[in-house]
Amino acid sequence: MTDREGIAITMVMGNAPQAVAMELQKDYAERYDWIVKEFTDLSFTFMTSFLYYTDYDKIDEQTRSLYCQGISAFGGISSTYRIALEKDAPIIVWDFHSLLVMVQMYFSFMLTDKDSDMRLCKYCKKAFIASRRGNEFCSLKCKNQFNVYKSREKKKGNKRND
C-alpha cells in the first residue's frame, strides 16, 4: 500500500474500528497457523457444548465440571458497542477491534441460539450449517449410511430374539 492510500483510508475510516481499516489494506493477512488454531478452538468449544448436553445423563459430575471449565476458557475478549438512532428505531452497532473478536462473537451467538442452523452430523459427527430446520445429517451420503447401519442393527436384534 502506498502512503497516499494509507492516508486516504485513515481519513475515511477515522472513527471506524481498527479492524475495519485493516481489512481494507491490500497486504493484510493472518498467518495460516494462527487461523488453524483459532478454528480448532471454535471446534473444541462447539464439540464441548454439544457433548455436554447430548451426554449429560451419561457423564459424572467431574466430567461435567471439566466441560464447563473448557467452555469458560473460550473467548474473554469483548467487543464494544454503541447505540445509533436510525429512522425507525434505535439499533446496536458493534465495534470489533479485530476479526477474531467478530468471529468469536458471531460463533457465540450461533452456539447459544436455540434456533441456530449449526448442527453436528448424526453419522460422521462433523459440524455443519443446516440448510433446513430439522436436518440431522451433513449430506445425503451420511443420512444413507446412518440408515443402513441402523437397519442392520435392527436385523441383528430381530435374529437374536428369534
What does this protein structure show overall?
The structure is a single chain. The protein is 54% helix and 11% strand. The mean pLDDT is 79. The strands form two sheets. Strands 1-2 form a two-stranded antiparallel sheet. A two-stranded antiparallel ribbon has the order 3-4. The chain is elongated. With 162 residues, it is mostly helical. The chain has six helices and four strands; from the N terminus they run H-H-H-H-E-E-H-E-E-H. It has helices at 3-12, 18-23, 32-54, 61-72, 99-112, 140-161, and strands at residues 80-85, 90-95, 118-120, 127-129. Strand 3 and strand 4 form a beta hairpin. Helix 3 (32-54) packs parallel to helix 5 (99-112).
Question: What is the global morphology?
Answer: elongated
What low-confidence regions span 5 or more consecutive residues with pLDDT below 50? none
What is the residue-mean pLDDT, rounded to a whole number? Answer: 79
- Count, helices: 6
The overall strand count is 4
How much of the residues is beta strand, in percent?
5-15%
Oligomer: single chain
Helix content: 40-55%
